[in-house]
Design brief:
CATH architecture of chain B: 3-Layer(aba) Sandwich
Oligomer: heterotetramer
Structural class of chain B: alpha/beta
Number of domains of chain C: 1
Helix content of chain B: 25-40%
Radius of gyration of chain B: 19 Å
Distance between the termini of chain C: 22 Å
Largest interface: A-C, 44 and 43 residues
Shape of chain B: globular
Helix content of chain C: over 70%
Shape of chain C: globular
Number of helices of chain B: 9
Strand content of chain C: under 5%
Chain lengths: 390, 254, 324, 287
């Protein structure tokens, strides 16, 4: 027993010594379970960044420690965040695919003197939970608001909204409604569907019966997306001219092969398309595809992770590798750079990313693969969600 | 004397098959009745109807003059109708002592207590001690049922029934499957049953029936064909035809 | 003989308390930086103990037990976030009360059937609870989770800090209290009645007892225990998510219980600790194969240690003692 | 009126898809008395095989279905020999654990072999269109699913009620030792009916893939749905399963049409009410 305690103490001491020139970043995400693909994208984005920019910043070496929270599980997320901070001595917490997981870890930050860089979780309010939270992904409000504008400018005046009955769905519903009604359109009906909806035919019937000229939809990616898009085609809604509006979650690149031709022509708004045409993106996609292994699995969380790493690198530079969370966060307020998704910056007040939102259309690339082809750019979009919540 | 248990015109059919056809029976305090009949006569079904383990299609059951036709077995047990089971149905992981404690506590309405132990209740312990020694189970008090001999399990079954302080006791083949060496104990236990208790015993062993019963009821094909003193039963022509004839002949041949 | 037995019982209780304290102490020494994880294990251990009360002691198969845990979690969380009841003891009380109430509701429904339909009823109830929490998002925060829970210092003295020492200490104390109470319950007249019901409900009925009533009561007690675990979860995590009343958590709790062995408090505790350590280890080592490994573990348990690890080992020891 | 009719059509189509997938589970649960939570996993294996066969090997749809059914049986038989055989007659809890364990392993392996993305099974041209019913149109593959369901129900009923195999199966279930004494080789009967159940699962996995797309977590995602169908119908009863599927399909579809927000609520509440009223299922066998 005594020897055991000694061993533990020795290990702790060794860790302390190693801390001097290693900056550890703890990344929490879903690396197993039904959402493992998204976690894989986190890792691909991070690996791509480190492959392109090295692991050394000045004298310091960056080390990533991954922790797995397979599903939204705040208790586990908090436990792991605490372990990362206290035991592993990480200077930065990053990742967070689900909102509740980020919410659970946020109260730790100040006491731990650790900034948090959110690489996905998309509920507006997270950044208000601690002044040490920075987000490099997007919010639902941010990606959805331009959809409303697109719909209105198409000449669509009556819309039915269809969302999954969970917090992001509610956000999407509200954001679209706010934007669309402000433009002068009418929401004729609002449907909230249970998460576990397998058969969308009755919904399609309901949409037809509502007399709407277009539909706005937000669903979690994966099987529901596929079911919805198929039902939309099979029930003749596209033939009936009922227009389809959605944010890009619905046509994320990793789902496109399964959606196949059924998705062709669908227009969505989002902050990132893998087909974005820029030299930064070409380099990023090459590195990220190499990191993820199967190119078909690359999707939007990777770019949130990539830019998250950029922010963290800047923070480390600013603090010289010392643990000073406030200084680190202050250093990236207002930071702007050329991301693979286009020009972006960190809003100094909200600490959320300001970025372009693109209108894209699912099309076939020359090599026969399906892509989100960018049609139109809404420049420098902030997060309207925070203002709406006030 | 008023009957303590009365079954009135009980009927029960499974599918189209009438198993119990208009059976009535009265038991008075102190009765010692044996219910006999060939296999498949409906004896066990009848007992199940009386105890409420089965619901009758028609007819009534009364305990102490009050109808319990629509009550379940638990309610009937609380009113003093207690049975033993044909195939031993004891709790394999409990000790003999725990069995009796459970029965006594349930009888006294104390099984819903969340704390304490029967060991701290002198009244209960004394009663357990008396029951165990009456039935000669003192040596196995702390053994789990799965570890004790079959004959002793049958004795425990009787002790368990007595612990509920029944007014009517239904014994389903109390001596079945018990080795010859242990039947004496069981018979002694039966002989010692409280005098004012009404007992209805289903039994195949006619020696036991003749020694125990003061009245014999014969059930055949779901109906009572004889109800009278034991001495008369072997002489009854219908009984002989239905069942006992062959048995009586075999006995004489020995 | 009798006196000897009761002292032996009390001494096994003391051994149990000592074992829990020792395990907590070792955990504290070995993982001083992982206290949140240890606290989480304790909260889940309470859930698994509570499940053991109905599954192990009463023989009810349920895949919906997280409903009770989640009810406790949300009650404690809502009390703190909406009613400014931030005293951890009062929050725990809220959790226990809500857990017991949820236990009553679930019990009355689940006990209506047996076997497979019972299993399905339990699943349906946990989904209903889940949907309810999702629907009442103005109270529960829906799928974003209920945040804004900040428990005040325990007894006014110990603040809930980053290192999670207070939460851990509180959890250990809670677990000890529950453990002792459950030991008392297990050998109370009521505990004996439930053991009887598990083996032969028909027999119990002919002894005059109503299994339905007794089992419903056990469900309420079980709900109180699960609710205590849920409250601990809310207090230590300070966020309550929908996962706390999910089918998945229910299934995991069942797996933990059977891993350790049903029908014994030690089995429940062993199972929880081993499963969580296994999960922590394997998911850190290779998250990609974690599910396959858990599956293999389950199959191995069924094949080689059908009574669970604790059950099989104590059986083995008892046999050895028997032959020696 | 028209919308009611339309909902009825959707309910029928959805119910029949549920039926095709769940009926195999009803066989294992009702006749073999095994709570087989891995049923969905076998359906998923069928889906994967069909997807691989059509996408990678370029095999036609009909051949892919056959390949899926027999391929899944080939995979399942060793599992039955090694694992399931040990839990026949075991307590439910044991069966639940074993089959959840098997499900987890299959999910993990599927994830490793095929990756986490959705897989599709392209339909042949004949099934791609839609049929005009006058008041609305219905996708041809749904009509195909309905026909499959009816065919499966009829064949299974014939197999169990009218053939020598069915008699032996029912005898083995009612009294295994007696059946064995009469010369029925119960082990083979059990293995054969397990194969039938798994084959049906695979068929359902392929035919239902348009509604329940194939991905590694298929096996867990729909596990509860299948269980609910079987226990509402009454394990082991083919007409029961059919009635349950149509009833639950109607409740689900109607709920989603008129009250989508409370669809899930509605569904599970009805399940609770039905089971409380019929603890053995709508048409369950007497215990």
């Amino acid at each position: 027993m005594k020897r055991l305690v000694l061993a533990v103490l020795a290990a702790a001491a060794f860790q302390g010594a190693a801390l001097a020139d290693t900056v550890k970043i703890g990344v929490i995400g879903p690396f197993s379970g039904p959402f493992a693909l998204q976690g894989k994208n986190f890792k691909a984005g991070i690996d791509a960044y480190m492959a392109m920019h090295g692991t050394a910043i000045g004298d310091d070496t960056v080390e990533i420690i991954y922790r797995d929270v397979p599903k939204a599980d705040p208790a586990q997320s908090k436990a792991l965040a605490q372990e990362l901070v206290v035991k592993e001595g990480v200077q930065y917490l990053a990742g967070f695919y689900f909102t509740p997981d980020a919410m659970a870890a946020a109260p730790l930050l100040e006491q731990a003197n650790v900034p948090m860089v959110i690489m996905n979780a998309a509920t507006s309010a997270i950044v208000t939970k601690s002044p040490l939270v920075v987000r490099t992904s997007f919010t639902i409000w941010q990606t959805v608001t331009p959809t409303a504008q697109v719909a209105f400018e198409d000449g669509t005046r009556k819309i039915i909204t269809v969302v999954s009955d969970y917090a992001p769905g509610h956000d999407a519903e509200k954001a679209f409604q706010a934007g669309f009604e402000k433009a002068g359109g009418t929401i004729v009906e609002q449907l909230r569907l249970p998460m576990a909806t397998n058969d969308f035919s009755p919904i399609m019937q309901r949409i037809k019966d509502s007399g709407a000229e277009g539909l706005f939809v937000f669903l979690p990616s994966g099987p529901p997306t596929l079911g919805f898009v198929k039902a939309y085609n099979e029930n003749g809604l596209n033939k009936a001219g009922i227009k389809f509006y959605a944010p890009g979650d619905l046509t994320q690149e990793s789902d496109l092969p399964a959606l196949g031709d059924a998705a062709l022509g669908l227009r969505t708004t989002f902050h990132y398309s893998i087909a974005h045409d820029s030299s930064e993106n070409t380099a990023f996609v090459a590195a990220a595809r190499k990191a993820i292994g199967n190119p078909a699995e690359l999707s939007f969380p990777s770019v949130g992770a990539f830019d998250g790493m950029h922010v963290i690198y800047k923070m480390i530079e600013a603090t010289g590798g010392e643990a000073d969370a406030q200084k680190a966060v202050d250093a990236v307020k207002g930071l702007s750079w050329a991301s693979p998704r286009g020009p972006v910056s960190i809003d100094a007040e909200s600490r959320h990313i300001t970025q372009n939102i693109y209108l894209r259309e699912v099309s076939k690339a020359e090599d026969g693969s399906y892509i989100n082809k960018e049609l139109r750019t809404f420049e420098k979009q902030g997060d309207p969600g925070l203002a709406a919540a006030k | 004397m008023s009957p303590i248990l009365e079954a009135r015109n009980l009927q029960k059919a499974f599918g189209g098959l009438k198993v119990i056809d208009d059976v009535s029976l009265r038991l008075e305090p102190g009765d010692r009745v044996a219910l006999i009949g060939p296999n498949g006569a409906g004896k066990t079904t009848f007992v199940n109807l009386v105890t409420g383990n089965l619901r009758s299609d028609s007819g009534d059951v009364l305990i102490g003059g009050a109808s319990v036709t629509h009550s379940g077995p638990a309610e009937r047990a609380h009113r003093g109708l207690v049975r033993s089971f044909q195939v031993t149905r004891l709790f394999q992981d409990m000790t003999a002592e725990e069995h009796l404690a459970l029965a006594i506590l349930e009888r006294d309405g104390k099984t819903h207590r969340l704390a304490g132990s029967y060991r701290a209740m002198p009244q209960v312990m004394r009663e357990i001690g008396i029951l165990l020694s009456t039935l000669g189970l003192g040596t196995v008090a702390h053994r789990k049922v799965r570890e004790i001999a079959y004959g002793q399990q049958r004795l425990l079954e009787i002790a368990l029934a007595l612990a509920l302080r029944p007014k009517v006791l239904l014994l389903d083949e109390p001596a079945a499957g018990v080795p010859q060496s242990d039947t004496g104990r069981i018979e002694a236990a039966l002989a010692d049953l409280p005098a004012d208790l009404a007992v209805l015993m289903i039994e195949h062993d006619m020696d036991l029936v003749f020694r125990f019963a003061r009245r014999v009821v014969v059930l055949a094909a779901g109906a009572i064909i004889f109800d009278g003193p034991p001495q008369a039963v072997t002489r009854d022509q219908r009984v002989r035809e239905a069942y006992l004839g062959s048995y009586a002949n075999v006995r004489r041949a020995h | 003989m009798r006196a000897g037995q009761s002292t032996r019982r009390v001494s096994t209780d003391l051994v149990g308390i000592a074992v829990i304290l020792a395990a907590a102490g070792i955990g504290f020494l070995l993982f001083p930086d992982n206290l949140a994880l240890l606290t989480r294990i304790i909260a889940l251990a309470l859930l698994v103990l509570s499940l053991d009360l109905v599954t192990g002691y009463c023989g009810i198969a349920t895949l919906g037990h997280a409903a009770l845990y989640g009810a406790g979690s949300y009650a404690a969380g809502v009390a703190a976030a909406h009613f400014a009841i931030s005293d951890p003891l009062l929050m725990t009380l809220a959790g226990i009360t809500a857990g017991a109430a949820a236990g009553l509701v679930c019990g009355l429904v689940i006990l209506r059937a047996t076997g497979l339909p019972q299993l399905v009823l339990s699943i349906a109830t946990v989904y209903l609870f889940h949907e309810l929490a999702n629907k009442l998002s103005s109270w529960t925060g829906g799928s974003d989770g209920l945040s804004g829970i900040s428990p005040s210092p325990l007894l006014g003295l110990f603040a809930f800090d980053l290192w999670g020492r207070t939460a851990f200490g509180f959890g250990v104390a809670l677990l000890l209290v529950v453990f002792v109470l459950l030991r008392i319950l297990a050998r109370s007249p009521f505990g004996m009645l439930c053991r009887g019901i598990k083996e032969d409900p028909l027999r119990i009925r002919s002894m005059g007892a109503s299994p339905y009533r007794a089992l419903a009561k056990m469900y309420v007690i079980s709900g109180a225990v699960a609710g205590a675990g849920g409250a601990l979860n809310a207090i230590s995590t300070q966020v309550v998510g929908l996962d706390s009343l999910s089918f998945t958590l229910s299934a995991e709790a069942l797996v933990m219980l059977v891993l350790g062995g049903t029908g014994s408090l030690y089995g429940a505790l062993t199972g929880t600790v081993l499963f969580m350590l296994f999960a922590d280890f394997v998911s850190a080592a290779s998250p990609f194969h974690w599910l396959t490994m858990v599956g293999a573990l389950l199959v191995a348990i069924v094949l080689f240690a059908p009574k669970g690890l604790y059950g099989s080992i104590s059986d083995y020891l008892a046999r050895r003692r028997g032959t020696a | 009126m028209q919308s009611a009719l339309s909902v009825a059509v959707d309910a029928l189509a959805y119910g029949m898809v549920l039926f095709v997938i769940s009926i195999g589970l009803s066989v294992t649960m009702g006749l073999m008395r095994v709570v087989n939570l891995a049923h969905g996993a076998f359906a998923m294996i069928g889906g994967y095989i069909a997807s691989y066969a059509t996408q990678m090997l370029g095999i036609g749809y009909a051949a892919a279905i056959l390949l899926a059914v027999f391929g899944t049986i080939a995979i399942a038989i060793p599992i039955e020999r090694l694992l399931y055989r040990r839990i026949y007659g075991a307590p439910e809890l044991t069966q639940v654990l074993m089959t959840i364990g098997i499900t987890f392993m299959i999910i993990g392996i599927a994830n490793y072999v095929f990756g986490p993305t959705l897989k599709t099974i392209p339909l042949p041209g004949e099934l791609r269109g839609a049929l005009d019913l006058g008041f609305r149109s219905i996708a041809t593959h749904r009509i195909f699913a309905i026909l499959c369901g009816l065919a499966v129900a009829a064949l299974l009923w014939f197999l169990i009620e009218k053939t020598a195999f069915g008699i032996k199966l029912r005898a083995s279930v009612d009294n295994a030792s007696m059946a064995a004494a009469l010369g029925v080789r119960t082990e083979i009967i059990y293995a054969a009916s397990f194969a039938v159940a798994v084959g049906l699962a695979a068929l359902g996995g392929v035919v239902g893939a348009e509604l329940l797309p194939v991905e590694p977590y298929y096996a867990l995602r729909y596990m509860v749905t299948f269980l609910v169908v079987v226990s509402v119908g009454g394990a082991g009863s083919i007409p029961g399963a059919l009635v349950a599927c149509l009833l639950l399909g109607s409740i689900d579809t109607a709920g989603r049409y008129w009250l989508p927000e409370f669809g899930e609520f509605f569904f599970y509440l009805s399940v609770i009410v039905i089971i409380c009223l019929f603890p053995r299922g709508l048409l369950g066998r007497r215990a």
